[in-house]
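thought: fold this chain, then report.
action: predict
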Amino acid sequence: MTNLYLIRHGEAWGNVKPILAGMRGDEGLTPRGIAQAERLRDRLAATGEIAADVLIASDLPRARQTAEIIAPALKLPVQLDPEVQELNLGEADGMQNGDAWAKFGFPDFETQPLRPIAPGGESWGSFMLRVAAAFTRITRTHEGKTIVVVCHGGVIDGTFVHFFQMPSHVLPAAEFFTHNTSITHWQRHTREGRTNWRLVKYNDTLHLRDIGARESIRWKDVAPVPEDSAGQPAAPIPTEE
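observation:
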């Protein structure tokens, strides 16, 4: 069984400033983003809930910084992978949003999903193709292992498109909203000769709930996995096979 954990980076300056943050515009994490990543590190260190074999991160500063903060909890080095970067912004990278839209036009991926966001950048369709290729490679290379990938909201969106085999050249009908430092967990199962991906959880941000609280969560008292059978899948009925 392959376990794939996806972690979105902490709050970044690109999330709070009106700037398009690719490699040029990315200023890393805000103080709040650092605190979020530290809370996640403390949770993972105390619970041991992710026994990772490999830690991969986007090389954009906000993701790399998040991965470096949580790495001691996983006791693994960070392997940088540019193929799990957020959508490539091309010439719009580092520009103020309004200036970029005035120069290149507002990116309407709903009606023009194959139009690049700016010269040298990606369209929605090309972005989804890159994400699919990256996770096919990563999960094949580390098959049967527990993989942690620190990346971006758009990349995590792309795993839903890829693993659920949605059309990749149009925006999904459902909108995703992946929170900073949230955990998304996929498992790859083989049953009766058929291999597929199962979504175990999405947007797990339990570690953020004690920010600003009077008392912190006692992570050593939290079980790494549920003690009941909630994690066991139901036997599929004929219409589900």
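thought: worth noting. Strands lie at 2-8, 54-57, 78-80, 146-151, 183-191, 194-204.
final: tokens above.
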